[in-house]
């Protein structure tokens, strides 16, 4: 099976998929792209409806035998299920349901919140410095009108106070969810290390500087974050960073209409 992974800096969904790739032992050609400059939509990448209309926003694209796929949790599951064993997802049906239920909480609540706060803190000024002509050229290939509108809002610095407040609350809730799971002394969220750990870490690791109050007193979560960071797969993914602080590199995340 020939794999090509187009990925951004090791943060958010790109971190999940890079670490999943290394956890599962697959060989893949790695092609870094700048998600903060909408390079995922360039002619150099293969496209289909799934990648163009991805609910994840600006995430990595995995091409398997010529077929492009998107969305980090599903890509991690694909890598797990095509590996020689199942290193990052349980084979038991109930345990698999539990993992996917957890991941859905993260991708539908924590991920939009993290991306919203992340682009406000680290992408808005970068986009506003572009000329109108350059910016519009980067936006032209984007097929999703919703995603294109979010890019424009970020460039204009148009951030809704209610969504900012809601995002902060969702990050705090995600930390509380992690803290509660770890209360019994386990090392990993669902007992065995899984995609749930990778996906949760990928969205929360960059929130410490942006929303530090969410982590106050969450010592179990801090220890868990350090354990994840120390895993060889995550350490290897982080070593691929092109910038000194990849946790500060954010692109538009899951679509705005997933709030609630």
From TrEMBL:
Alphabetized Gene3D superfamilies for the sequence: 1.20.1050.10, Glutaredoxin
Residue intervals of the GST C-terminal domain: 117-245
PROSITE patterns (UniProt xref): GST_CTER, GST_NTER
Superkingdom of origin organism: Bacteria
Protein name: Glutathione S-transferase family protein
GST N-terminal domain residues: 1-87
